[in-house]
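Suppose you are handed a protein chain with no further information: no name, no annotation, nothing but its sequence. What can you learn? This example shows the usual starting point.
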Amino acid sequence: MKIKTILVSQPEPANGKSHYAELASKNNLKIDFQPFIHIEGILGKHFRKERINLLEHTAVILTSKTSIDNFFRIATEMRVAIPDSMKYFCVTESVALYLQKYTVYRKRKIFFGKGKFPDLMGLITKNREEKFLIPLSDMHKNDIPLLLEKAKINFTKAVLYKTVCSDLSHLSTKKYDILVFFSPTGITSLLHNFPDFKQNGTKIACFGPSTAKAVIEAGLRLDIQAPNPQAPSMTMALEQYIIDYNKNNK
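A reasonable first move is to predict its three-dimensional structure. Written in structure tokens, the prediction is:
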């Protein structure tokens, strides 16, 4: 049996134009999209228990649009007016520009890096007199706090949002030849929603070493892994595997 159907555990690209659309067109595939996880904000009543005073901080480190949304959401829930003097340190320019949703961009002190957090560290260390707040997910990696600690930056971690399993009760995994995952929590959601899941002939593709580890630890078979030397992207890895598999299963 040839591979004909793929389920990608992410939201569908907004404009419909993507490498997945090209992959489907070139290889006569049906590709569906379904997020296996989603973000939920930590409630104000739970945040209060952390005893973090937003106004004790003079700068905020923002690593994503989600961190911006939840920083201003929690400020609203706590009835805290963020002062105009607050400084914002963003990992990319696009994240910085997203601040326009909540504040007057040109009147604020906003700094941004080139895409990787270590690039932003130079700007942070030049402003080490500030007291920084960094909004994070409950499942954040510890590399950013460790960099800040190493540089002896005065900062507070604020867990403002969490990653939770989506309800997939409407879904049938048996319809798909390949399931594609991008995070360990995606695997957690698969097993949470389908505790009796049997892989059998279903292929599992994953992106990144931590996701690969989660697949194996769950006792599942990992068929396609990206990035790899021949395929730096998920769509490239899928296409190489599908062409080879279908050629051998005519």
